[in-house]
Specification:
This protein is α/β, with parallel strands linked by helices. The chain folds into 2 domains: 69 residues, Transferase, Pyrimidine Nucleoside Phosphorylase, Chain A, domain 3; 303 residues, Nucleoside phosphorylase/phosphoribosyltransferase catalytic domain (Pyrimidine Nucleoside Phosphorylase, Chain A, domain 2, 3-Layer(aba) Sandwich), CATH 3.40.1030.10. 37% of the residues lie in helices and 14% in strands. The protein is built from 16 helices and 9 strands. Strand 3, helix 6 and strand 4 form a beta-alpha-beta unit. The chain is globular and about 65 Å long. The chain starts with a strand and ends with a helix. The relative contact order is 0.14. Keywords: Glycosyltransferase, Transferase.
């Protein structure tokens, strides 16, 4: 990559050789590697690519379908996270330990639930609502933004909460540890944590096509290193195994990638949902803390086998697995302005909807799944009531997830966590 002086103080870099190899792969002596794409991609966040070359890179990744390659997605998302605003890890770790949320196989780490968007179904803000409802049991780090492909994005609906919304712009990397000293819930507003995205905002808007950035959002959580479990919804079936592989390459051990049969980036309330689950299992290559002779095992090798790894399992889920009825997507259609969706969200949290409301069931499905994937449903005892030990698809306790999700609403604990978040952000 050749450097040249740009209009400002920074040197811009020419990636013309890489662009040519992407444009004419049959003529290239060496095929383009994911690491090369990620290195060029990182220049965007450093503001070292010209507008023309940024546009060319995004367009070629789209036309060659390199933006659907698991290794490319994994490595580009890593570069995006590396360019994010730095969070003081010791302070955040201390705040997380202080919350002391442990139950079953959940170790008290952060959790996220997010979708790629772009499924054209315009359903209710399910993942945002689910992230709040799960927060009495889980430390939630919901990563989101304003609407990109719908009328009401996750940040839009939170900003429309009445009478007092959270002050999302106030929650910066520096303030995040303070939030978790006060509440289990945090919403990480993407522009606050990814300032480098401004360098490509105009390019994305003027291109008018979906680019790799539309896929990276779910994997760009700036506290990815502290995420214990997550659900990622994808808008097309072909993306399911791609995202599962990308998550594995990134070291994720607890995740559920979902895509409704209708190409919905949520767990569908209307019928089956295809699932790709990363399940944490013991690593057979891990030697353990003791050798066969009973001596302590030590190593200075950074690549030494970890205690656990993830195993990929594929299965289908349906509302019946959760003990819930099906509802056509037309009954959970949103297509409404943020204010209306915010009112519905608050009605759910205040337990004002009837028990068989379609949107409530839709939200319960997805909240339950996050609780299940975290491992919190594996505890055989729970202070909130009798544990439902029945197992369904993938060998998981989906009905116990619903029981816990209902308790979070009916007890008022989910609403309490959101109220604490609102108060905290407005006090900054």
């Amino acid at each position: 990559m050749a450097s040249r002086e740009g209009d400002g103080a920074k040197k811009t870099v020419s990636i013309s050789p890489l662009l040519k190899r992407l444009a004419y792969p049959s003529a290239a002596e060496i095929q383009v590697q994911a690491s090369e794409i990620a290195s060029a991609f990182a220049l965007i966040f450093e503001d070292r690519l010209s507008v023309v070359q940024s546009t060319a890179l995004l367009t070629l990744l789209h036309s060659t379908r390199k933006d659907k390659d698991a290794a490319v997605i994994a490595q580009c998302s890593q570069r995006m996270r590396e360019a994010a605003s730095k969070i003081k890890r010791p302070a955040l770790r201390e705040a997380i330990r202080g919350r002391n949320l442990r139950l079953g196989q959940y170790r008290g780490g952060l959790c996220d639930i997010v979708g790629t968007g772009g499924d054209s179904h315009s359903t209710f803000n399910v993942s945002t609502t689910a992230s709040i409802i799960a927060s009495p049991f889980l430390l939630t780090a919901k990563h989101g933004n304003r609407a990109q492909t719908s009328m009401s994005g996750s940040a839009d609906v939170l900003n429309a909460i009445s009478p007092k919304p959270p002050k999302l712009s106030a929650l910066t990397a520096e303030k995040l540890p303070q939030i978790y000293r006060l509440t289990n819930y945090a919403f990480l507003f993407a522009p606050n944590f990814h300032p480098g995205m401004e360098n490509v905002a105009c390019v994305r808007r003027d291109l008018g096509i979906r680019t790799i950035f539309n896929l990276l959002g779910p994997l760009a959580n700036p506290v990815d290193w502290a995420i214990e479990a997550r659900i990622v919804g994808v808008a097309y079936q072909e993306l399911g195994p791609v995202f599962a592989e990308a998550l594995q390459l990134s070291g994720t051990k607890k995740a559920l990638v979902v895509c409704g049969a209708e190409d919905l980036d949520e767990i569908s309330c209307a019928g089956p949902t295809n699932c790709w689950m990363l399940k944490e299992v013991p690593n057979p290559k891990y030697r353990g803390p003791m050798t066969e002779d009973g001596e302590e095992y030590t190593t200075s090798d950074d690549d030494a086998p970890s205690r656990t790894i993830s195993r990929l399992e594929k299965f289908q889920l349906s509302p019946v697995d959760f003990g819930l009825p099906t509802h056509p997507l037309s009954e959970v259609y949103s297509g409404k302005m943020p204010k209306e969706n915010a009112a519905k969200l608050m009605s759910i949290l205040r337990n004002e909807l009837r028990p068989d409301d379609p949107i409530l069931d839709f939200v319960l499905l997805n909240t339950a799944a996050l609780l299940v994937i975290s491992g919190v449903c594996e505890g055989d005892e729970c202070k909130t009531g009798r544990v439902v030990k029945e197992r369904g698809a993938g060998g998981q306790r989906w009905k116990e997830g619903v029981r816990k999700a209902r308790w979070c609403i009916e007890s008022g604990q989910a609403l309490l966590q959101l109220e604490k978040f609102v108060e905290a952000t407005n006090s900054f």
